[in-house]
Amino acid sequence: MTRNDAPVTVALVGAGNRGQTYARWIAAHPDRARLVAVADPRPFQRSLVSDGAAAATPGAAPVAQFEGWEDLVAAGSPAPLADMVIVATQDREHRDPVVALAAQGYAILVEKPLAPSAEECRDVVDAVETAGVLFGVCHVMRYMPYTDLMKSVVDSGVLGEIVNVQHLEPVGWWHDAHSYVRGPWRSEKTSSPMLLAKSSHDLDWIRYVTGKRIQTVASFGSLKHFRPQERPAGAADRCLDCPLEPTCPYSAPRLYLGTLREKGAIWPVTVVTDGTDEASVIEALRTGDYGRCVYASDNDVVDHQVVAMELEGGGAATFTMTAFSEQDHRKTQIFGTHGCLDGDGEKIRVTDFRDGSVTVHDSGHHGATNAADDHGGGDSGVMDAFVRAVATGDASHVRSGAVESLQSHLAVFAAEESRHSRTVVEVPAR
Hints:
This protein is α/β, with parallel strands linked by helices.
């Protein structure tokens, strides 16, 4: 590293689940990064990351704590408090802090999605380009070891010219119920459409792996199952009161108490309650959103969606997102003029048409790819890359910069327009 090998200083805006994930990486790498400020309206969440930073860097100055990003901005005048800032607030709370912090000169890493509308996404990109600051989006799938392997195979030319891509995101029945029926991403009005909140990763990943911009889209999807019309007879409004709970696939007690008993207070339990015992979980299920019947929530995001895409150069891709699956690795098939591949999230099987040979490549990363397992190495990967970019001044370490991220977001917005209008929609380049 340059900068006399001094650790990169980091401010964190938003100390929820994602912010805590990045704060843990910082605490685990005190020689490379140091948390110096955190902004979040919740004292408990602020203290979690502050205490973690103090334990990682004993003797360092205490982490400055602010109730909101506005206070961080005020404290950063005339000089920023840190080399870089991570914006990990809720989806609809990205644009304003990014615009303000870019003007102050921070290098900025922002959680996806950039913003809930094309106009706000463009505002973010314009702001960071005007300020000339280093910028990255947490499209963590770009930073997974499996993605490195996938892209190396595609870029090697063994497949010839890419003609078709099929990509599946199996969200998982319990994960969908947790995050997109009971959780904060359940409503387009308060968060964003499912395709943006969850699957913007996937359209961005297709664009990254193929190296081809998405030019035209058509999409279909709906909220089919998690709605009052599907509610079984006799179901109660809350799982703890429901006679059907023992056999319900979406039982909240089974998910959260089961996870606590088997693995301890980790995600998704930590989202439900700040407590670490069964009594805390039960109380949260009795009074909070996560104990509600999945057929009696206020959710409106889709539980399944398909997107058909025309790629730059004439190839085509299809993407399927479904709640009704195991929570598993994404599955991908790529078909080229000289060969094809089949990827399961861990290994890639390549068939070469020229000699009929079959080669299996192993990414070396096996296990889950959810928030409890570093998203398949992607969470660590994006932090490693962005901190390295800040430390060295070399922006090439950032794989998810402003323009490409904007392009994949615009593809998502076009797909949502298509889903609602039932038309084929062109995707603007900018």
